[in-house]
Amino acid sequence: MQPPAGSQVSRVPAQRTPQEDLAPPPAQPVPVPPRRRLRTVLTVAGVVLTVLCLSGAVTVYILYSRASAPDRTSPEVAVVNYLQAFLVDRNDARAEAYTCQDSTGLGPIERFRDEIVTRERELEVTFSINIEKVTVSKAGSSDAVVAAVVRRSASVDGLQQSLTDGWRFELRDLDGWRVCRAELA
To answer: How far apart, in whole angstroms, are the C-alpha atoms of residue 57 and residue 54?
Structure first.
């Protein structure tokens, strides 16, 4: 017999649905979240490595700039560096860093180097060039006169020989001291 419609009679146990039908489906294994810790460590390591590389590159650039910049801090230093580049190393490009733009006054020292090269070829020797006794004889705020002795030495026919030449250089302070004129003293 059926209870009347709208009554609140509970169902008979035989009418209940079995528990297996109400149970949730078997649980799927919970997916493991990706390892965020490893990703964080790799990101931090990448950032640190990038910063180190960039700071290293900047440091190398600054050190290279300082090392390769010509030293024209004083008239004596400029003359010695010019003579080293021009007579000893025979590097015109480097010597140019120590000269004025109008270098017509450097003709005598250019002829002197040409004479050295010619004598080396004739005698089949290489001269050793030394710059000695560099002194400032007159210095103003933007111009100076520097005297220097250039010694040429070589072993010719088994005998050590040496010649000295006194030179007078006129310099100007043009964003650093530069040699503008050279003449035998």
So the answer is: 5
* Closest to 81 measured CA to CA, from 15, 164, 18, 171: 171
Decide: helix, strand or coil at residue 11. coil
Q: pLDDT category, 23, cuts 50, 70, 90?
A: low
d(CA 103, CA 95): 11
Provide the greatest CA pair distance for the chain: 143
Helices (H), 70-177: 75-83, 92-96, 107-123
Q: What mean pLDDT is predicted for residues 96-106? A: 87
- Helix ranges, the chain (H): 19-22, 36-68, 75-83, 92-96, 107-123
Q: pLDDT digits over 38-90, tens only? A: 888 888 899 999 999 999 998 888 888 777 667 777 899 999 999 999 999 99
Residue that the structure tokens 């100076």 belong to? 144
How far apart CA 120 and CA 114 sit, in angstroms, is 10
Find all residues with CB under 8 Å of 158, minimum gap 6, and list them.
none
- Nearest in space to 127 (alpha carbons), one of 142, 112, 147: 112
Q: Which of 167, 162, 159, 160 is nearest to 151 (CA)?
A: 162
pTM tops 0.70: no
Token readout for 127 is 């001269």
